[in-house]
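Lesson 9: reading folded outputs for more than one chain in a single document. The general rule is that every protein is listed as its sequence immediately followed by its structure tokens, and records are never interleaved. Here is the first one.
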Amino acid sequence: MRPGIPAGSLDRPILRLAVPGLLASVSVPLIGIADTAMIGHLPEVALLGAVATASVLFDFLFWGAGFLRMGTTSIVSQHHGAGDRSGSAAALFRALLLAAVLGLLILMIRGPVADIGFVLVGGSEQVQLWGRQYFDIRVLGVPLVLATLVLNGFFLGSANAWAPLVVTVVTNLVNIVADYALIFGHWGAPELGVIGAAWASVVAAATGFALGVLVLLAFFRETVFGSRPQSLLDPGRLRHMLSTNLNLCGRTLCLLAAQLFMVALVARMGEVPLAAHAVVWQLWSLVSYGVDGFAHAAEALVGNRLGAGDRLAARHYARRTLVWGAGAGLLFSGIYAVGLERIAGWFTPHAEVVSAVASLTVLVAVVQPLNALVFVLDGIFIGANDATYLFRAMALAAFAGFAPAAVLLVIVLEGGLVSAWSAYLLLMLGRFLPLARRYRGGAWQRTFLTTSTGV
């Protein structure tokens, strides 16, 4: 640590960003948790599997498009650290334009996406029938979700974690309330079951985008409109934005390919293992989003410091966020070690599903500290705009680590749910090792603002 700088002076800005970021991130999986818990109380187990399989496709769409949020934060954070308002504004509008194009493209090809996706994911005839109906409605909210990702990326890159907190929490509260009304037919709403859960997501997406625009106009007007505008089609800046986003997209698609392969394997084990996997996946996501509060703090602080030319401070913030993230991972590890089976009972009354979840207790609990370090390292390198390395590291972990292990354990040795999740643990280890090696060096501390691209 820099002489004369106490740990508390690092913790304050970290927590100022991490606490609202953590609250916002933890609220994100509430959409999936609300859908899973409420649909889990409907009479047929197949309905829970239907939401699980359809949600995997939306993971591909939304997590796959998560580069819009990450790429915007990565670029805006360094412009913000350098005091470049016009650069921040131009990065926002370029990303919004990209989000609009992608959103419209997804709507245009939603039929083939669903056809291919449900063939790959598998599941029983009932699972496929209800899953397709859920997908066909929820996909209508995709363009709004993508634009909101960009807005939240801009807010975070500007070192403001409260704006995305407000947008995210309000969005998810609307989703939960609409779930309760439309799934079960409360408050005069029609009782739509799985279809109601899909419409609730669309309503929530529209609410989130509208609120994000209001926050932008109310609190960021000077940044966005108060400086001389840059050309949105500047070739150097466009190339840099596309390179950043393509690498982050590739990184995420590698991860999602591994997750799709995993759920496809589990879906062919039967409805009970698939339902158990749906429950465990929601709890796994809760941890990732919780620790992401510190990862997001690392994105903003590391990016701001590198943009300002202070490489030493960037490393100090990176190191301190790793400490905080590891502590959060240990906390979740303890919770799941003693309470995973009981928590599973909150999701569904089906005893066979709860028993299948309980069989994963040791695996789920042990891996959480490792997960936390991986998530924070991702945040550090996103803030540093080290997107190319993140893509290469993820591709190695997914295709040289997880995929062969999953084939061996599940297909060749005919293992069950525990074997599938064991292979996923190897994926996390495969992500950690190259990221830790990169962190020990100094190559990630270069900033794109001083490169020959002129960006």
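And here is the second record, again sequence then tokens.
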Amino acid sequence: MGALSNVPTRGGEADPPSAGLTPDAFPEAKNLATGVSVRYAHDPGRQWYVFRASYGRVDRAAELLIEDGTYTYVARRYVQKYVHGRRKRVLEALIPNLLFAYTTADKADEYVRRTPALSFLSYYYNHFKIDGEQKNPPLTIPCAEMDNFIRATVSMNDHLLFVEPSQCHYKSGDTVRVVDGLFRGVVGKVARVAGQQRVIVTLPEIGMVSTAYIPTAFLEIMHK
């Protein structure tokens, strides 16, 4: 496994991520059962599709897509849980049941409509758009926004939160970039969440993610 991964190893831990990731150095998507890995690189023929995997089968869907050569990403964070009566630090999905895949329109359609092994996989639709057939199209996310989301979540930090707007108390309308620390390179809005100063990253039509605490010295205002 490469040094940048948001896919757990067999021991349940993940290799330590690096801050300030560039698009060609994002985590490898890796199938733990087969050892197959796929790297992410921008491709004008592909888009970031959002899929929903029912019954908690996100990992299974990711395994099948990776084996087929498709880069996938599942946002995760560490949490403390009791397992068989013992307190343990384990990984869980930050946004339950959602899988992000960088692929072509034809491949996305093949996975959803023509792959029996993925019968539990469906599109996450964009309910704010209508296509030529007067239907909601599958939601796709621009690379720049997805890259920022990956930067914000790749650390799997215990204090990452998937938040509601009511939980965010914005200090100003400024957009900032994190210039140091674990979240270096992340762009978003400064807000107080759970009593701490954090940076909020928004994924269109999906929701908002809050980083862990970030000191003011690590923030740079981005001027328009």
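What the second record shows: The longest strand covers residues 169-178.
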